Structure formats: structure tokens, C-alpha cells
Amino acid sequence: MVQLPEASKKGRAGAMGARQIYEALKDQIVRGVYGSNGLLPSSRGLAAELSVSRTTVTAAYEQLAAEGFVDLRQGARPRAMPAALGQLSAKRFQRQHSSGHLSSYGERLKSIPPRPRSLPRSLITDFRYGDLAPSDFPVLAWKRAVVAVVTQRRDRLAYDDPRGSLRLRTALQGYLWRARTLRCNLDQIIVVNGSQQGLDLCARLLLEAGDRFVIENPCYAMARNIFSATGAKPISIAVDKDGMNTNLLTGGEARLAYVTPSHQFPLGGVMPIGRRHQLLAWARRANAYVIEDDYDSEYRYDISPVPPLHGLEDSGNVIYLGTVSKTLSPTLRIGYLVVPPQLQDVFATAKQLVDRHTPLSEQEALATMLESGIYESHVRKIRRRNNERRETLLNALHYKFGDGIDVVGADAGLHIVAWLRELPRSMTGELIEKALKIGIGVHSVMPLYDPAVSEGQPDYVGLVMGYAALDTRQIERGVHLLRQAVDQMRK
Amino acid sequence: MVQLPEASKKGRAGAMGARQIYEALKDQIVRGVYGSNGLLPSSRGLAAELSVSRTTVTAAYEQLAAEGFVDLRQGARPRAMPAALGQLSAKRFQRQHSSGHLSSYGERLKSIPPRPRSLPRSLITDFRYGDLAPSDFPVLAWKRAVVAVVTQRRDRLAYDDPRGSLRLRTALQGYLWRARTLRCNLDQIIVVNGSQQGLDLCARLLLEAGDRFVIENPCYAMARNIFSATGAKPISIAVDKDGMNTNLLTGGEARLAYVTPSHQFPLGGVMPIGRRHQLLAWARRANAYVIEDDYDSEYRYDISPVPPLHGLEDSGNVIYLGTVSKTLSPTLRIGYLVVPPQLQDVFATAKQLVDRHTPLSEQEALATMLESGIYESHVRKIRRRNNERRETLLNALHYKFGDGIDVVGADAGLHIVAWLRELPRSMTGELIEKALKIGIGVHSVMPLYDPAVSEGQPDYVGLVMGYAALDTRQIERGVHLLRQAVDQMRK
Question: What are the sequence ranges of the domains in chain B?
Fold first, then answer.
């Protein structure tokens, strides 16, 4: 972190006094080295880095705090004061940097909506979808599995198979067959860094500028972003209570169709068998691939499992996509593709070019949990927990809103969509603001609709409500406060 | 793994008898479910999966072995016999699958040389470059760090910053400054899945079909593949003992230049300061980016550290690329980009679209090791070990080959290039064959040269010899056997 000229010549900072550390830190803070949030190294960490005593570092920090450069709080990490935070740097950089060309892909990325900034942690209840409760994570089993991998003996540390570890693919092959009646060869399975990378590989290998792709409307916005980033144009197909309305599929210019048939995201419809066959027949005629995103099929409540498209007749163009982001953690970044045999080699080559392979220890740890059956008992356990959360949410909404609310997509998954009949769509932004003020995070369904398509969207406020990261008390409290926010607006 | 119709309806295999398991496995083997290598589940794993006793599974396997479907070896995993391995499947699939279109990127990938198949493990010595010795991995420290991450309390499990964990970027910022005199803002650092992903992000954001890129000749072949896969064309610049010959850089049509100035891969030259300035001046004139791949700068032996391009004046277009694949393990898949401020947002967006972020636990574990200083003491330790390996290799080569060999690039890194004066280049393939037969793996430098450029390559056999995965005994034995192989050919 801290370095002086002579130290830098040695390529290693020698022992320093408090004064030198103070000077160096001040210089860095003013130069804006500490980025937007101004977080500085902990005194412990810095002492270790510089091999000086912690008191030396503390002395330096206290001097900086006294002079108003640093904000010191007990237990928290030192922060540079916003005022002190380097105005210099940005300007200096802009001046000295000529900006080279971007590819058309790079130019298109500029137009993609900036990533949502995560909300303040201080909320009483945040209904943001996609997060999970740490208490649901199988800490002990995962720890044991990871330690086993780290301490395992190997001949040499070398790059692994780009398709993923043989052990994991073998375990997944069995799991997919048992849990999803999905049969495939080992070489059809490509382990990826979460379904995100699976979608990106599909986009790169199957789409290019000027192509068309079929996508649900509303849909998983990141999928639309990934496909659009290639320069391909969406054909948005309206969704009803049975998922994508396959009657609207016209003669096929499209290269691929992206669907979530087990539990449409966000509206939650389960695609009936008739539509599934209709979709596959269209794909065959159009000679297009169908990407089946099975992101949360582990969570079924009142309904019996629906086999994936992949299992059906005529499914030779289906690319199946699964993930553990909804059953273990989104931070693990593990997903898997099952691709048709005619694509297995080009996907393997692409995966190798893109990042060699997915990190081995997560793969092997997951394999251990699948082999031992722990993964499936874990899924059964958290399915029960999420069912409790779901029922708590449904009861609370019914109790607080009665007929004022339409809930859809509650038979499966980890979220619902709630349509608030009492509020026109135009009031969405205001409701979100009001809710935030009283400590709850609610999230509009609107960004998930294709902005280019005007019709098809209900006229009142629609919220995507995820519950997997919340306990029942938070859910009840959250609904209670949401009711309050709505009442305030109706005054 | 094994499933029967009614079981599949239940979505979960019930308890089965040995007979049923035998039937199901046989069916799968013939249908080719077990891929090219025919590896079947371990009896332990399968018993757990089916919740039956292990003896039941063993009985089924023994029946299959008796009938010649399976090869059972004590301690090893059961394998399907190649003969039994599904001839059906391939045909069946080809028939039923119409093959959709690939993007031009996908089409180009077909032309990229298939990934090298890793050599048999039975070799006495394999000089393959890129592998590390497991005995060099800091198992205890890493285990402690990972366990700390897994057992750490969090508010919720949610997607992290696409640029990488704040803790790791803060730790890297300090490390880069101390170890490489490289100063940057936190927001310029993008944590990626190994340098491979860093190069791929650069390729996607900076290159497109028809563009030109400058690259060393010979070079890291995967880099050339990644850039070529975009449809851009290489401008190969010859390398001498001082790295890329920057005098050959002509007026700039190129969008970027890819260089390894700290230790040219593979020939090992260290680019002197004069050439560095020449390169940066060219980049400014051409308005091109310079990608500085600092893949093994931790390993310097007889020479003093050379500061990276990134630190120099006029380096506003330099993209710095680092990795832990050479200091910890290539299987961790962690690297980092330091991009110019004008690129930091688009790189962050790209990283998020591509795979959200790099897995969190590896990031946090690495951060822990950097904060505590353990990482740097680890690097010092294995630098000493690799220096021993290096000297062993150099002495052995000198002793066995005397003036018959030219060794280059030995001042730094984890490999050397050995030119065997005694053998014409045309005998390379034959030498590799002979060496393999007597149990050593040697690897030609030829594939690293641009096939489109005929001149510049010496007329005799050149080998890239990595030593980081070998112990000194293996190195001496390996050189001894290499000598034998060469002698056989000179008879």
C-alpha cells in the first residue's frame, strides 16, 4: 500500500516510521489511489504489509485523522474523507490518456444500462430477487468438501479439461438424470462460471450483429443484454400465465430462442407440454437453437415436476442451462450447459479460449456433495424453508392487500410478482422511493419488459418480490411497511 | 447415474437391486453415456446416489465385468470397455440433429488448433511448461484462508462487484505498488479468471474482424488464438534476445500490441528501457493499446527487477495483466487487469456480462494471504526453489550437451528454451516421439511461431523446457534421457 522511492527501487518496502507512513498515505489519498469509496487498508493489514508494528501504523492514521484526511471508527476500516479524496488523479489521467478505439461490441456495452448499485445494507427488508440467506448455505459440508480438495495430493498443478472436471461432469450427469430425467453424454456437459457465462458462450457462438433472437417479454434482463451486446436484435414474444405464448412465434429468421419453461422469469408461468412441442417444432423449422434456462427448477411447491424440453422428442437443438446459484450461492459462480453433440467441441474450444476452465476447487467440492447425496438432501431442506417463506409472504400480502393485489408465479421458484391494483404504473418510482425511506427495498418488474414494446404491460405497479434471503419475520415486517407506503400514496 | 422409468417419474431413483443396476448401467454403456473415456461412477458414489448398499453395486459391476462391459481394477474407478462403448449414440445423435448456424466467431474457432491433449501421467519427466509442483503450494495457509471465508458471516449471499472483491483489489493495489512499483486506483483493477480471461476481455472490447494487432513472434500461442478468434489479423514482430524488436514497428494500423516485456514468452528476453519507450511512443502515434502480460515477473534470478511499462511516462494506453497461476496454481483461475481510467467502466460492464464476477472465495482467500504478507514470503520461498531447479537444469544440460546446445531466457521465469545444435529442425517430431518412448515429455518451440512467417526461426530443434513442476532428480534424469534420445537419432 505504502511505498517510498528507495523502497520501490528495492521492489519491497523496508521498515518505515510513522512519519513516512503518514506522508505516503496522505500523498495517496490526495492522488485518489483509494477509489470512489476511499477505503484504506486496516492498520493490522498495513502493519503486516510493511512489516512494522501496528502501533506505528496507528500513530500515522491518528495523525491523518487529526488533520481531517481520514475517518477512523472503532472496528471499522479507516476511510479517506470524501473531501480529501483525490480530485487530482481523475483530471491528471484524463489529460494524459488518449483514448483508443473500442470494438463495436465495446461501443454497444456503453449503451447497456449501468449495473444496479446494491442497496444500503441497513434496510429492514429487501425483497431483491437473486440473493440467498447465508443461514441456508451448508457451511459444514462445503467446508469439509473444500478442505478435502485443497489437501488432496496431485501429480502436478496443471490446467484441467476446459469442459470441467471429469468428476463433476460425471456427478452432474447422474444428478441431471435423477432430478431432471435429462440424459446426456459426459462430453455434452460444459461447466461454466454461473449461467451468466453459459449465456455469453451461446451468444458468442450462435449470434452476431444483424441476427435476430427470440426472447420472452418480460424476461431475465441480463439475458437480453448479453444477446443484444452481440449486435443481434430481439424478437420479444409476450408471456402469459403459461409462459411464452408460442402461438406468436412466426416463420423463423431467428438464430435462437431463450426460454425459461420450468418457471418463467419473472412472471412464473410453467410452460405446458403443448407449447413445448410447438416451440421445438418452430425451432426445427427455423433451424434455430433453443436455450432452456432451468435456473430454479429445484423449487416446486404445489405442482409436480415438469420434465425439461431437453428430454422431449425433437429436442436435438436444445441447449440446457443449469446453475447452483439458487441452491448453494450466487458467489460460487458454478453453472453447467448441456449442449447438443454437434456443438460440444466448439463450446469446449470457446470455454478454453475464454478462461481455460472454471476454478477446480469449487468444481471438486460440488462433485463431492453430489456424489455423497448431500447436495440433494440440502436441496430438499431449503425447498422446505423457502416454501415457509413463500407461504408467509403470500399470507401477509393477502392479509394486508386482499383483493388489491394480484400475485402470479407462486407455484415455483424463489420469487413472486405482485401487481398492486391500487396504484397506476406511473407511481412505481414514487412507491420505491417511499418504501426505501421507511426501510424496505422493493423492485419494479418494468425494467424486465422490452422497452421497445409498449403494449402487454399491466397498467398498475408490478413488483418482483424475492424471499429466499429473508426470514419470516422480515417478510411480515416488509409487507406491513409496504402496505404503509402504499397507503401514504393513496392519501 | 442409474435410473429406471418409474424412478424417473418420481424424479428420484428408489432403492434398486443389483440386477436393475446391472441392466441400467449396461444400457447406458452401450448408449455411450460415459463419453470418450468410459469412466463409470465409483461403487461408493453410485451406492450413495441410489441409496443402496455398496455390495449391491459391486455385484452389478462384477456381473458387467464378467460379461466384458466393464474393466474393474483394484483402487481404480470402473471403466467401460472401449469395445462396449456406445457406437450407437453418435450415429443416433447425428441423425436426429439438424445443425444450426454458428456465428463467424464460432466458425473461426473450428479452425483454431484443437487443445493439446495432456500427456500420459506415467512419464518419468515431463518438461511441459505451465504446470507447478503441488509441493510448492502453500496448502496450510490456503486452507486456513478458505475456511475463514466459508465460515464467515454475511448479511446475504449476493452477487459481488464485477470488478472483484473490494478487499482483494485493495490488497492487490498495495502488492502491485510494493512488488512492481505500479500505482493505480482501485477502480482500474479488474479481477479476472486467470490472464486468459483478461486477454479475452481485451480482445472483445478492442478488436474486431478486419482489425490488426501487433504480437511477438514467437509468442504465447493462446494469446494469438484469442485475438485471431475475433477475426483480427496478426502483425508478427520478430523477437531477439531483448524481446520484441520495436525497430520493426511500422506506422500504426494496429489497434493493440501484446507484449511480455519482463520475460518474453517463450524466448525469455527482458525488454530494455529504450525499446519500452519506443513501444509506448509507437502506441501513442498509432492510438493503440499496449497489453503488458506480466505473467511470471515474480521469478527473477541474476537480474535486478525491471519496472513494468505501466509505470513509465506516456503509458496511458497500457493495460497491465497479472496472474497467480505461476505463484499459487493455474487451477485457481485468478488474474487481474489494471486498465486505463478511460476503460475501467466498459471493462467492468463486460466482466459483469461475461460471468458476473470471479468466484468470491478464491478472491477473499487470496486477499487474506496478501494482507498478512504470507503471499510474498511464499513467493520468496518458491523463487528460491525454482532457482535450484533452474540451476540443476542448466548444469545438467551443459554437462550432457556442452556446446551442442544454446540455452536462452534463463535469467527469469519458470522455463528456458534449448536449441539443440546437433539436430536439424526437421527432426523435431521424431525427437519428441523417441523421448516419449523412453518416458520423457519434451515440447517444441515451433508451434509458438506464426505459421505465416517463414524466416526468423533457427534451423535446429528448439525445445521449451519448463521445470517448475519437477524435482531436481527428475530434471537430471530427464536431461540424461533426452541426451539418450538425441544420441539414438544421430546414429
Answer: 6-92, 125-133+378-490, 138-375
CATH fold label, A138-375: Aspartate Aminotransferase; domain 2 (3.40.640)
Residues in chain A: 491
State whether residue B185 sits within 8 Å of chain A by CB. Answer: yes
d(CA A90, CA A105) in angstroms, rounded, equals: 26
Q: Does A289 touch chain B (CB under 8 A)?
A: yes
Nearest to A205 among B103, B169, B222 (CB): B103
CA distance B412 to B302: 8
pLDDT at B485 over 80: yes
C-beta atoms of A157 and B11 within 8 A: no
Task: Tell me which H or E stretch contains A173.
Answer: helix A166-180
Same topology for domains A125-133+378-490 and A138-375, yes or no? Answer: no
Residues of B in contact with A469 (CB under 8 A): 156-158
- pLDDT surpassing 90 at residue B40: no
C-alpha cell at B74: 483394484
Q: Which residues have C-beta within 8 Å of that of residue B215, sequence separation ≥ 6?
A: B223, B224, B227, B234, B235, B236, B237, B257, B258, B450
- Are the Cβ atoms of A355 and B200 closer than 8 angstroms? yes
Contact present, B220 and B413 (Cβ < 8 Å):
no
Tell me the pTM. 0.83
Concatenating the DSSP letter of every residue in B12-62 gives S-----HHHHHHHHHHHHHHTTTTTTTBPPPHHHHHHHHT--HHHHHHHHH
ipTM of the complex: 0.83
Cell of A301: 411447491
Window from A224-233, A319-328, A455-464 with minimum mean pLDDT:
A455-464
pLDDT digits (tens, 9 = 90+) for B74-113: 778 888 877 665 444 443 444 344 567 899 999 999 877 6
The CATH code for residues A125-133+378-490 is: 3.90.1150.10
| Chain B residues lying within 8 Å of A85, measured CB to CB | none
Instruction: State the number of CA atoms in the 13 A half-sphere of B220 facing the CB.
Output: 25
The pLDDT, as a whole number, for residue B93 is 41
With residues binned 3-state (H G I as helix, E B as strand, rest as coil), the percentages for chain B, rounded to 5, are 45, 15, 40
Point out the residue among A156, A350, A357 whose CB comes nearest to the CB of B132: A156
CB contact under 8 A, B355 and A197: yes
Sign of CA dihedral B236, B242, B248, B254: positive
CB contact, 8 Å: A144 with chain B? no
Q: A257: which DSSP letter? A: E
Contacts of B157 (CB under 8 A, 6+ apart): A131, A132, A133, A134, A137, A329, A330, A331, A469
Most distant CA pair in chain A: distance in Å?
A: 75
Phi, psi of A228 (to 5 degrees): -65, -30
Candidate from B159, B166, B284 with C-beta closest to A98: B284
DSSP symbols for A329-343: -TTS--EEEE--HHH
Residue B122: CB atoms within 10 A of its CB come to 7
Q: List, for residues B323-348, the tens digit of each pLDDT value.
A: 999 999 999 999 999 999 999 999 99
pLDDT, position A84 = 61
- Ranges assigned E (strand) in B263-403: 289-293, 318-323, 335-338
Spatial separation of the C-alpha atoms in residues B256 and B204, rounded to whole Å: 12
State the nearest Cα–Cα gap between A432 and chain B, in angstroms.
20
Which grid coordinates are listed for B173? 493495489
Nearest CB to A353; choose among B150, B211, B225: B225
pLDDT band at residue B4 under the 50/70/90 scheme: very low
Q: Which of A400, A355, A425, A12 is nearest to A162 (CA)?
A: A355
Class of domain B6-92: mainly alpha
Say which amino acid occupies A310: H
